[in-house]
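STRUCTURE REQUEST FORM
Protein name: Cyclic phosphodiesterase-like
Source organism: Nelumbo nucifera
Requested output: structure tokens
Priority: standard
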Amino acid sequence: MAQGYGVELYFDPALENQVLKAWNVLARRQISTQLIEMESRPHITLFSSPALDPPKLENVVKTFASKQEPLALSFSSIGSFPNEANILFLAPTPTLSLLQFHSQLCDALKKEGVEISEDYSPDSWVPYCSVAQQVPKNRMAEAFSVLRDLKLPVTGYAMDIGLVEFSPVRELFSFPLGNAAEA
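Status: completed
Returned output:
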């Protein structure tokens, strides 16, 4: 798996548990266990790069987080990307507040000289929360069927933003969104 860093948006406990339920159902059916094995945490990746300066980013992310409020999220659909990783995901409804949040983060990173790749630029970023990776092609239909039983939409809030190093996944830091970041 690729090495790098990711800026991730984390959920409130109830929403995180809904995503974990999907991970566990897919694991019990032996469709995909990778996210559990890599000790990932349910999240939406806001930005990823093969090389970053974590100490430099820590202040940027901390300041950014303190100026934000928890963000309402509603995972309303299931999707897959047409690539080799065979990723299945829950897609949040792309609200203006989510898109602005991402765009403002990109602006803050650019001011610090961080280059934003095309995949994460505000004009082409696709927000999603992985629920399975490397699903065997012959089990994709079954995996979709399992996820359709989730009773979408599942709603909650994005509460924290953090930086992880991968692979394996290791959280370097995270900060709560809003005034709680100053406490």
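Reviewer notes: The longest strand covers residues 154-166. The mean pLDDT is 92.
Form closed.
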